[in-house]
Design a protein that fits this description.
The structure is a single chain. By secondary structure, the protein is an all-alpha fold. The chain contains eleven helices and two strands. The chain has two domains: 108 residues, Arc Repressor Mutant, subunit A (Orthogonal Bundle), CATH 1.10.10.60; 98 residues, no CATH class. It starts with a helix and ends with a helix. The chain binds a DNA duplex through α5, α7 and α8.
Length: 241
DNA sequence: AAAAGCTTCAACCGCTACGCG
DNA sequence: CCGCGTAGCGGTTGAAGCTTT
């Protein structure tokens, strides 16, 4: 499972999303005390930038995998599980963050209709998205919206949905049209706020680069701004092992 | 201005699957 | 088979931010 060379090389040409740095702005806080009651050596709670750097650095030099040993060897006072989660959901260079596009929403709908809550299976079809992110997206946005839709249906107020559907020529099988209906609703519902959030992203961050050429699987969403890690952390930090 | 309520999402937990000796 | 270690999954939690009152 150790993939030293591949992960190292992919890492060095990596990019990080805006929100990665934004996170530290938001989370400019002390990590919550974070030790479990039975094992004072194990830290819990939000990761600090220092911990992230240690993990990134370690993986850049040794590759990922065998997380328990990695956790020990890197000197992090975290469980292997925690390291794995942090890496896969957040630090991995190809993690794509930010708003979920309409295309992705549609895909999530379709795949969820097919497979249900198989988040990781669904995530495999959305490059750069993590199961956690999709799960959160579904729970916070879709389920809420479904409830609203349910309520309005109960009030016999579902005629405008089919109107919308007609207007957008989304005519397919009944199941797909349901998916399309939902997606359209989500689109109109969520796009503005997402866009606002994105545009209000800090502009004081380092050089924002267009990664469309270097990140092959990041080309779906043109809303996204990425920059190379070199813009943020000097490379010597990563090679200092 | 501030308190209350709501939303978001990173991180944790418990569990299962799998591989290996 | 059994036991152990590891990887991975899906559900849940709770802190922080945001919005409403």
């Amino acid at each position: 499972m150790i993939s030293t060379s591949s992960s190292s090389s992919s890492f060095s040409s990596s990019s990080f999303s805006l929100s990665y740095v934004h996170m530290y702005k938001i989370m400019d806080k002390k990590p919550c005390n974070s030790s479990s009651s039975h094992d004072p050596e194990v830290r819990k709670g939000p990761w600090t930038m220092e911990e992230d750097l240690i993990l990134i650095n370690y993986i850049a030099n040794h590759g990922e995998g065998v997380w328990n040993s990695l956790a020990k060897a890197s000197g992090l006072k975290r469980t292997g599980k925690s390291c794995r989660l942090r890496w896969l959901n957040y630090l991995r260079p190809d993690v794509r963050r930010g708003n979920i596009t309409t295309e992705e929403q549609l895909l999530i709908f379709e795949l969820h209709a097919k497979w249900g809550n198989r988040w990781s299976k669904i995530a495999k079809h959305l490059p750069g998205r993590t199961d956690n992110e999709i799960k959160n997206f579904w729970r916070t946005r879709i389920q809420k919206h479904m409830k609203q839709a349910e309520n309005s249906q109960q009030q016999g107020n579902n005629s405008n949905i089919s109107e919308t559907n007609d207007h957008h020529h989304h005519q397919a099988s009944s199941s797909t049209s349901l998916v399309s209906n939902m997606a359209l609703q989500i689109e109109t519902y969520s796009a503005p706020s997402y866009q606002e959030n994105l545009e209000s992203f800090p502009t004081q961050f380092p050089t924002i680069t267009d990664q469309s050429s270097s990140c092959t699987n990041h080309n779906i969403n043109s809303n996204h701004n990425y920059w190379n890690i070199e813009d943020f952390w000097p490379m010597q930090l990563l090679n200092g092992d």
